[in-house]
Amino acid sequence: MIKDTIVAGCCAVAMALTACGGGKEYFVKEVTFPEGADEATKIEMASRLVPSEKQLAWQDLELTAFLHYGINTYTDREWGDGKEDPALFNPDSLDADQWVRTLRDAGFRLVILTAKHHDGFCLWPTATTSHSVASSPWKEGKGDVVRELREACDRYGMKMGLYLSPWDRNAECYGDSPRYNDMFVAQLTELLSNYGKIDEVWFDGACGEGPNGKKQDYDWIRFKETIETLQPEAVTAIMGDDIRWVGNEKGQGRETEWSATALTPGIYPGSDEANERLGLSAKAPDLGSREIVAKADRLHWWPSEVDVSIRPGWFYHEKEEPKALAELAEIYLTSVGRNSVLLLNVPPDTHGRINRKDAARLSELRNWIDENFSDNLISEEEKDLSYDFDKPSIVNTVVIEENIAKGQQVEAFEVLVRTDGQWRHAAEGTTIGRKRIIVFPETEADGIRIDILSARGDTDVEVSGAYCIRMPGSGDAAVQGHTSVPTDGWTTVPSDATAAIDGDKKTFWQSRSGIKNLTIDMGTVRDVTGFTYTPRDGDDKNGTIFQYRLFASHDGQTWTEIPTSGEFSNIVNNPIEQHIHFDTPVNTRMLKIECLQEINGGDFISAVEFSVLTSDK
Ligand code: FUL
After folding, report:
1. At what angle do helices 356-372 and 325-335 cross, to 10 degrees?
2. Fold identical between 63-259+304-372 and 386-467?
3. Given the CA of residue 573, which atom of ligand 1 is nearest to it?
């Protein structure tokens, strides 16, 4: 046994680690390169960057769950405006045991509750504001959702995390930075002192205040110190430095997913400048390649968390359906199978229960995982890169694991299968990390092998499984009771906006500068129950409408405003098709959408698609 040394990142305290072979010095969580270091030196140092103990334990969890629950559940919105009446919060059968049991049975190991979302409504009776469950009729103001979750987690052996939104649309002091920071620390202190062991603290980075909104200067370092003092074992996510947002809300990890990344956590002073210099952001496709490392001054062990909702929205909406099993299975492969932890949101419904449809889908997911990942063609126990099967078998999936306790090394690998003594190429990949699942075309083989083509340092990799998996058939997660109206014979103003109503999601329309309205003329009068808006996705989302007003007209002369929430909340992070349903059907020939705010404050709009919904059969 030789002593390896671990050099702790931020505080540069040296600790000792006993390990076999090497006598290596490792860097925990962060490594700063010496000035003028060349690429080879940096890559070698990068190979010695390792996770902290709590990061390592978190990466092992694989399946974690989100519970988005709060005032939005009762207003049918995604982002509340903070003006909601607490009296709206009155679940008739809130059952935290049912939440935790359902999640545990589906294999989830940690659950995170939105103790406070952007609307500022607190699910625990906080002393910091009256905008909380204490002002609601639920349990005559004596209820405490956070406590109920705590007790349920204890009963079922589930780890617990809390989401506390920094952006607060209710707090009067939001924007008065020192006062709000004090309030936020007080909220954090209540949550981290009175509810037992908290394993993950989740701070969201979202803020939809816009150019003329309130500006809050968050004291991230003080928030982090508060967590470290009160819950030293908790990992901090997103606006924290233990867990990184994967960069989308679709459930997709990168094909090349480095936990050793040059992206500086947003809570560190100077992070914006550091990231700008390297051209990096949470959404950037490449966060840790050799090219990036060569340009970086330091690296962070900042592993990815894939957060995605089982439904289109984060909060429960009666009209939405859970994703099809096929989509969830795909998400499992592109999150857990791509060196990430899955954080799947399952929003409790208006009764305060996980809806039976979601519960059923979760148990289908569990069964799918169990059925597909139980018949391992690799029976040998010994850790290796090459295996013989007991008999020729059909194979299409390989599971590879890297011992990340010693860092992330592999940059490129090839999967080969053997038939009649001949090795053939089956697939290739780049990073491995905690777990990599590669699916390739089905083939008959009697052995499987991984060749590591490129690595940063000594590798410690194992092929832990080979399977023949079947993807579930895709089902439709439709929107109940609404169908879109065929667009034949429709016209638009401006007249060049046909790509926005052509039913083709591969095309999009973008208005000229200065034009922020779109009128759709259906030619005939109908009872319209709502509309959908599909924004652009990908790198360029310019023109995406964030806040809007909607009008109806029979003749294009007299317009009546249709009441809507006026906001495609969270469209920046989750640019999915937006479904807006009216309280009562609107009898109209024309619809006009007027953009009040484009996501980047731009003076034009864009749309992949608008469709008009009706309840006509
Ligand atoms: C986003 C928020 O704005 C959403 O409402 C949701 O909480 C998601 C997890 O993070 O940025």
Report:
1. 60
2. no
3. 11
3-state secondary structure of 529: strand
DSSP secondary structure letter of residue 428: E
- What is the distance between the alpha carbons of residues 573 and 546, in angstroms, rounded to a whole number? 11
* pLDDT tens by residue, 396-409: 999 999 999 999 99
**465 exposed, middle or buried (CB, 10 Å; 0-12, 13-18, 19+)?**
buried
pTM of the complete model: 0.87
The whole-number pLDDT of residue 182 equals 98
Tokens of 204: 């969201």
pLDDT of the residue at 481? 59
- Whole-number pLDDT of residue 480: 52
Cβ atoms 278, 325 nearer than 8 A: no
Pairing, β 509-510 against β 606-607: antiparallel
Task: Please provide residue 21's backbone torsions phi and psi, each rounded to the nearest 5 degrees.
Answer: 70, 150
State the distance from the centre of ligand 1 to the C-alpha of 203, rounded, in angstroms. 10
Instruction: List CB contacts of 339: < 8 A, sequence separation 6 or more.
Output: 253, 257, 259, 303, 304, 408, 431, 432, 433, 434, 435, 436
Terminal CA-to-CA distance of the chain, rounded, Å? 74
Topology of domain 483-614, per CATH?
Jelly Rolls (2.60.120)
Beta-bridged to residue 113, according to DSSP, are 67, 162
Phi-psi region for residue 352, left (φ > 0), alpha (ψ -120 to 50) or beta? left
Q: Which of 75, 116, 314, 344 is the best mutation target for the ligand 1 pocket, counting ligand atoms within 8 Å of the beta carbon and taking the most?
A: 314
* Three-class SS state of 273: helix
77 C-alpha to ligand 1 centroid (Å):
12
| 472 upstream amide cis, omega within 30 of 0 | no
Confidence at residue 15, expressed as pLDDT on a 0 to 100 scale: 36
Question: Does the CB atom of residue 376 touch ligand 1 within 6 A?
Answer: no
Give just the sign of the alpha carbon dihedral 352, 358, 364, 370: negative
Q: What is the pLDDT of residue 473?
A: 84
Q: What is the CATH number assigned to the segment(s) 63-259+304-372? A: 3.20.20.80
Closest CA to 450 of 439, 462, 442, 459: 462
Ligand 1 contacts CB of residue 573 (under 6 A) = yes
pLDDT given for residue 149 in this prediction: 98
Whether the CB of 570 sits within 6 Å of ligand 1: yes
State which residues of the chain have pLDDT below 50: 1-21, 476-479, 617
Q: Is 204 in the pocket of ligand 1 (CB under 6 A)?
A: yes
**Segment 564-597, tens digit of pLDDT:** 889 898 898 888 888 888 888 999 999 999 999 9
- The domain ranges of the chain are 63-259+304-372, 386-467, 483-614
| Ligand 1 close to Cβ of residue 314 (< 6 A) | yes
pLDDT at 390: 93
Contacts (Cβ under 8 Å, ≥6 apart) of 597: 210, 545, 546, 547
State the fold for domain 386-467: Jelly Rolls (2.60.120)
